[in-house]
Amino acid sequence: VENSNAFVFDSIENGFQPLPSYVFDYNNVIHISTGRWFTLYVTDANRVYRYGTAPFLGPQYPNREVVQCRDKEIISSAGGYSHAFFLTKDNCVLSIGCNRDGQCGLGRKTKDVKTLNVVPSEYFNDREIKSIKSGAHHTLFATSDNFVYSCGRNDDQELGRDDRSDSTIPAPVLGIHNECKVLDLACGYKHSVVLREDGVFVAGLNTSGQLGLSDVPVSTGRFVKLATQIKSISCGFFNSVVQTIDGNLYGSKLISKSDRNTMSDMDYRNVLGYSCSGHKMLVIDMSGRMFIDGEILPYKCPKEMVFNKNREHEIEIVSTEDAWYCLRKNIKPIVKNHFVKFETIIKSFSFCDIQINTFI
Which secondary-structure segment (H or E) carries 68? Predict the structure, then answer.
């Protein structure tokens, strides 16, 4: 069975392992997101599959498809501690799961939202949503015209507001207007990071220096200017990491300083991919070597996961509290149809339910 373009790394002994294509009904994965104990995969057939513990998504069917998402034309997802968001092709935002802090963005607080609910488009002023990222109990939304909205718990002002009141509806983040392009979003346990072309906007809890600010325990929202343009960002529970366009990685406490975050003998100028998990950071360099918190692992990632000679694909890494997941992007679709010739006339055939074997 041909392997899919998705990989999982949840054991130091085994490293990254490719997931077989039958897991996703022989479709390519186009988006991965993670919650605390679960992972969501969206395929090019607009189906959603989940692994891990997420009872709010319904029964654990054998093929792990999230049946509630079927026929919704889902294109991306975002996972929190015990809630999830989905974005459809026609710009519809759906939410489900724990809503005690209003993190589902439905205008009310309830213990659990057990079925997919539509987040009213008027909450976003009918703007087109291009990206959604969830923290433990809060969520950020980026629009195509470069506004950012937030909802959910706000104990430590992770929503980027002046007060500490929870928000049951998505509302604009203070200080972020559409004068500059929003490139990426990231959420930690109780902090938020917004990457723009002109710098980084940070808000929320800063007790571990996760905002890159040394002078405040909590920030309502502040811009951090950097001398070098940032390419991407990643947040763990209490840490943040950015990668600059020249390939350097900077830890959260170095975000506004010129010091380099050197990591053991890793070639940190040639980083292929990286991601913060709950309390650790995984880095893969261009040669396929893997590092966790600067310590090199005794093996390389699978050869099909790293860049090939022509660099036809790139990788994206996301993580739960204690596992990492990798997605190969920009690859050719899996061939789904094959014609097989037999030397003998076939009388009948049948398929087994889990689509692994065919008996003739």
Answer: none
Radius of gyration of the chain (CA): 21
Q: Do the Cβ atoms of 271 and 284 come closer than 8 Å?
A: yes
Any idea which residue has 């996301």 for tokens? 318
Counting Cβ atoms within 10 Å, is residue 298 exposed (0-12), middle (13-18) or buried (19+)?
A: exposed
Q: How far is CA 207 from CA 192, 210, 232, 244, 275, in A?
A: 14, 7, 23, 24, 21
**Can you spell out the DSSP letters for 100-144?**
TTSTT-SSS-EEEEEEEEEEPGGGGTTPPEEEEEE-SSEEEEEET
**Angle 338-344-350 (CA atoms, 0-180°, nearest 5)?**
55
Helix ranges restricted to H, the chain: none
pLDDT digits (tens, 9 = 90+) for 258-298: 333 333 344 456 778 888 877 788 888 877 888 887 677 87
Q: Are 26 and 52 in contact (CB under 8 A)?
A: no
